[in-house]
From TrEMBL:
Residues 1-26 form the signal peptide. The keyword GTP-binding does not apply. It comes from Hymenobacter nitidus. This is Tail specific protease domain-containing protein. Keywords: Signal.
Length: 424
């Protein structure tokens, strides 16, 4: 009887194994050894050292980064601790286009996709320059021009200190601006309190109450489209990385084919995208193959002394929309959204209306650590407008002060004015 019972248990176990979801019985990753953490850190540091293409713009001493963070490895005994160590090491680059492929509950939100307010320093004061339409900061009354006095009751200068790299040879304005906006973005698990000064009064504002919208971003679809009188309007919903957008965009554009002009709104594209989708969209507005951006890969020149650069082309695709085109951009137009913008302008196919964009550096490449279960992304290619202007330095010809004011949509009104012939 015991033998029969053991046999029945064995058969039951096999049956349950067959019925279990794929991966459910897979063993959890074993805790890494100190040698494995060291190997992963060495791979991370060397990969950034050999491939990151913007060291010349930074005050970062990358050799010092190795000393500072390798010294902490002896105290690492969990995945969470190692993630935090690499987050801090990568933050030494103060580059919003460099990040890990994972995060912790108390990790800082990514810029610009994880924030709803953007600020810069003006005459020594931290001043709001843009507010993301439809999110918590706008809802509670944060507006451009307000001074940020404190974050979570910590005076702004003090709030910046832990976010500034420890390896910096000097703290430049770029590092201060990144740290400022990291402080404003907050962490994934803690509601923010922003103390602002406006009209000589201090106000406490709570962008994440009653709910943290930045943790639960939902869109009604890949895009929205409509007619504004005789004009067409298409707004992308952070979908430039979704290949399904190609068909959705084609359908919307075909429906608006008889309009006298088109507004392409890229102000909510903070998550980047891919060049397949970008070229597909741009291809609908041209009649011949044209270049839209220049690439440069410094790693090859550093290693072999041979410069590598090339121009990427866009080919016409489908029925051409040949009427005038205006592209709307802002601080939450990032990466591939920025590429489409400078591409359409380079091809003399669109008028660009709006403020400075996210100004993300270059094109990123993803790398995976040999032992840990996550990777990291860094810019490895510099990107330029066809005429050689670095993409991150682009400013729209129709430059407007960043929104949102909470009172109408000045950029959209300007776009309509341009298309109707009333704006230069």
């Amino acid at each position: 009887m015991p033998a029969l019972f053991r046999l029945l248990c064995l058969l039951l176990g096999l049956l349950l194994g067959l019925l279990a979801p794929a991966g459910a019985l897979r063993a959890q990753p074993a805790q890494l050894t100190p040698a494995q953490y060291q190997q992963d850190f060495d791979y991370f540091w060397t990969t950034v050292h050999e491939n990151y293409c913007y060291f010349d713009k930074k005050q970062t001493d990358w050799a010092r980064v190795r000393q500072l963070y390798a010294a902490q490895l002896s105290g690492i005994n969990s995945r969470a601790q190692f993630v935090r160590l690499l987050e801090n090491a990568l933050n030494e680059l103060y580059d919003n286009h460099a990040n890990l492929s994972t995060n912790l509950p108390d990790s800082r939100r990514l810029l610009p996709s994880g924030t709803d307010v953007w600020a810069g320093f003006q005459q020594g004061r931290a001043v709001v320059v843009a507010v993301r339409a439809g999110f918590g900061a706008e809802r509670v009354g944060v507006r451009p021009g307000m001074e940020i006095v404190a974050v979570d009751d910590v005076p702004i200068e003090k709030a910046l200190r832990p976010l500034l790299g420890r390896s910096l040879k000097a703290v430049d304005e770029a590092a201060r601006e990144v740290a400022l906006n990291q402080a404003l973005a907050g962490t994934h698990n803690a509601p923010r309190k922003l103390t602002v000064r406006t009209q000589h009064r201090r106000r406490d504002l709570y962008p994440d109450k009653p709910t943290a919208q930045l943790e639960h971003i939902r869109y009604a679809g890949l895009l929205a489209s409509r007619q504004l009188g005789t004009l067409g309007y298409i707004r992308l919903h952070n979908s430039l990385g979704d290949n399904r957008l190609i068909a959705a965009f084609d359908s919307a554009l075909n429906t608006l084919g008889a309009t006298t002009g088109l507004i392409l709104d890229l102000r909510e594209t903070p998550g980047g995208g891919n060049t397949t989708v970008a070229r597909a969209l741009m291809g609908r507005f041209i009649t011949r193959e044209q270049p839209y951006q220049r690439h440069e890969q410094p790693a090859e020149e550093r290693r072999f002394g041979v410069r590598r650069s090339w121009v990427e082309l866009v080919a016409p695709r489908g029925a051409t929309y040949s009427r005038p085109l205006v592209v709307l951009v802002g601080r939450w137009t990032s990466s591939m959204g920025e590429g489409i913008t400078v591409g359409l302008e380079s091809m003399q196919r669109a008028t660009i209306v709006g403020s400075e964009m996210a100004r993300l550096n270059g094109s990123i490449l993803s790398f995976r650590l040999p032992n840990s279960s996550f990777g990291f992304n860094i810019p490895t290619e510099r990107l330029y407008r066809v005429d050689g202007l670095p993409r991150e330095q682009f400013v729209p010809a129709q430059h407007l002060i960043s929104g949102s004011s909470g009172e109408g949509d000045a950029a959209l009104e300007k776009a309509v004015q341009v298309l109707k012939g009333g704006g230069k």
